Amino acid sequence: MDWVDLLLVAARVVGVFGLLVVLTIVNIWLERKVVADMQNRVGPARAGPWGILQTLADGLKLFFKEQVTPRKVDLGAYLLAPFLAVVPAFLIFMMVPLGPGLEIAGRQVPLQGADLNIGILFILAMSSMAVYAVVLAGWSSGSKYPLLGGVRATAQAISYEAAMGLAMVAVVMFSATAPGAESGTLSLAEIVERQSGTWSGTVAFLDPVVSLIPRWYVFPQVVAFVIFFLAAVAETNRAPFDLVEAEQELVGGFHTEYSGIRFAMFFLAEYINILSMCAIAATLFFGGWNGPTWEGVVPAWVSAILPVVWLMLKSYVLVVAFFWIRATLPRLRYDQLMTLGWKRLIPASMLWLVISTVVIGFRQFGLPFIG
Amino acid sequence: MVELVIFILMGAGTLAGAVTVVLARNPVRSALGLLGALVSLAVIYVVNLAHLVAAVQVVVYAGAVLTLFLFVIMFIGVDRSEDTSETIPFQRKLVAGLATAVALGAATLVSRGRFSWTPASGEVAEIPNGTVQALGGELFTTWVLGVEVTALLLTIAAVGAIALAFHRRSPETPTED
Question: What is the pTM (predicted TM-score) of this model?
Fold first, then answer.
């Protein structure tokens, strides 16, 4: 490892950081526009064309606002919490492969913050770290509503993380069925590569149709995708699962006592998490950056950029679905939330895991005890 | 060189976290100290190329167990004053004596015992397929019986917990809130 390698690593990290900040600015504006359209309003329209600079203006305003620190806070934890929210949010996105590797200065550079062979576990670890931000913010504020928000957040995160993890396990196991694969994989880059190409070869007379369908895991693992998506909405504390910050009941939930840039950090983390969850869902179930690149037909630089465009397109379909759900559904009651998590999603994901395992085992090894 | 720097930093972090767990007056602070110790230890695992162990450490201990701790602490109420009276006679002297004995024993073992420090060789053997595949292969082929028995044990524990939770007390005994 010499200085070129170090520079490339630094460039990747800074690149992902910059991409996330810019996309978050766009996302906040996009949500306000989409929800406004759905509610027959105009939405932000003053700052810049179509109001696209509105988020920038809001961010600047938050930067220069006074940061009120209430008297009863536990100062250490109170100051730590916003950072605990932002850092895991950025780290999760580091795992998402943005495209196939590039050749720079004679080195193979993956278009990804970091390609770990424990990628999926890392995502789970970081999303459980993000819970601490909410818990600590709620507790350290020294006030009732944030504490209630924090307690709710803990319960919700614990409940839905289990379902989300089990849904991911089904995908990891299914990745073992890829042609030439020895075992399943936890590396997201590997999972994307195993989804390239199309389905083919199971039933002969269906082949003309089946070989047109891309080899995305959403088709065999549709149940896992639905569970993952529901759990992702709950993990990011979005409506209809936003009991953590239910405005009508809890003022603002865990971040009631935060103002200025500290509040902005929670806000930033929330929107980064939405994008990360959608990008991970696109990676696990919709083939990630796989898509036609038309090499030789279009200029080379277009072919190089197209994978990133495909990933972003797939992610943004899901992001808009997040906004759509928020604009459509009313908030769940707390007991409904827990019932859905523990009595519906977790048993469903376990059942799906068992079915999935049996089918994969049957296809790999045939019937047990016979032959 | 990098490893040494990270080890010193994270070792200090682990120790500081552990000391905080014991010394902090506020239980939430203690839990935070434990979090710091667990995460620092996970970084040390990563430096030693044990990525899987690091991830499991963060997911299971920092992510699940400690969150439950915090949850319980918050529910019980952090502000309730603690009963700090010591129940075991001569508690402090006893602990001080035991700690000194253990420290002396360890020091004797290290300095006089038949051990030698084996420094890690420069080359760290990296398992080609990554630690996940290697460990998974071992667990589900060579040690599969142990894995299954542990799974059974955990199931029994879960069933027991549910049975205790659903056990209705007779009306005479006052229930605790």
Answer: 0.84
